[in-house]
Amino acid sequence: EYIDEESQEVDGGASADDSGLSARSGRARKPQWTAGQGAGLSAENPTVTAASLHVLRCLADYIRLSHVLGDANHLVFMAICTMFESALLFTFRTFGNQGALESHVGAGGEQLTPRLRGTITRLRTQSRAGAVFAQPSPGPTGGAVGGAENAAYTSSGNLYGLKERCVAAESLGAVAEELKRARSTMESQLGAQNGRAVEHFFSRTVDVVEDLREHMYKTVARLLLSIDWMEEEIGDSEKLGATKKYDRREVGMQHSKWVDRLLGEFRQFGMKLKCAEVPVSVTQLLWEYSTEACAEKMVEGLARVRKCTAEGRACMTLDLQVIVSALKGHQQQLGGGREPPNMRIVDTYIKAFYVPEGELLHWAQTHQEYTLAQIISLVNQIAGANNWARRTRADLIAQIE
Q: Would the pTM of this model clear 0.85, i.e. be above it?
């Protein structure tokens, strides 16, 4: 049953049994910031906007209409596809990183998955909205700078639109889950001759919602965690007047100064999430994506170290242990407490310093998670610490390249 938003009258003309779609509450109401069990509208206190409920209502009407259209019901399916595609495209336009779309060289986790990139590109080409979509220039928050209202709610003062992103992502996801539940009904009504069209719609559009959701949360996590300074602080930087940070002769008991600054940023990050009052499930995702961004910055910073001794490598391990211990404390507050898995990429990079010379080429070939520049930097660090001959170093780098 559906509740008319204006008259509040119940419309019993459509049922979940008829279409496979369901709408539990048609009234526009304040989102419940509680992650529930199940999927779509079956979740407890789902986050669904009034607009998404309207889309679901229209989709259910379309499916019900296809009962009486017979051979022309493929037109109804085309209308369903167009409506959902428009919602997905608008969501990306508002909250997606358009800079990553324009270039295949993305910024870490903000880079689009091939599936999401292909879908957005296709929709921009097919839809009339593509011409409008291309006009706004990408802003620093990842969204389009096309209006004062959009710029206001995606600004740093509004936590880069964290609440709005959460509502948009979870609401679109709820619509996608309801469509998946209605898939068997669509397939039976459209027949085998339209089976390929149904498969393409779900695999190339509906399933992409999860990619878009991940992209939106990764983007805002990196905006909320201010760590652009890490590479220079960790690595040897003539600009900062520090060029021998890990070229040490003794380990010591004190971690590096940049670790304290990083942990301070994570504390600020946690406070921002509390202020936004997003669901626990989303909070956990944002913590995961923030530690992923941190790990990437740490590896890049360690790769900028020019000279490193065995004692310096031990200091790197100490720095990592302090960070991991602090992050485990944050996880315990969220009901977790395990070691952040994203930090393993840092641990592996640090320990690679001890790989024997004869095994380094194999190690480099089997660790594609690191860039070529990071691997070459590692080789240079090992070669410097072990007094390799120049020819030995050059030969290994040539094989890696």
A: no
